[in-house]
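Researcher: We're teaching a course module on how sequence relates to structure. For the next exercise, students receive a sequence and then see the predicted structure as tokens, so they can try to spot secondary structure elements on their own. Here is the exercise chain.
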Amino acid sequence: QRQKMEMKDIIEKVNHYSQLSRTRELTEEEKEERIKYRNLYMTNFRANFKNHLYSIKVKYVDENGNEIKGN
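Model: And here is the predicted structure for the students to work with:
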């Protein structure tokens, strides 16, 4: 069973492979790991972003900033 990683841990792995690739060529295994963590990051980012958008509530207000009920 695959354990869910925290976003900070995923970012740490992505950054690790990015920094490593600046100093030397990554091995094939490291390249695969980098792709895996980048994909994991994007999957989590999209899910978090979507959840954030779903949690937004729109309130209609008049010119004085008072909430307009019934919308």
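Model: If you want an answer key for the exercise: The CA atoms of residues 61 and 67 lie 4 Å apart. The mean pLDDT is 92.
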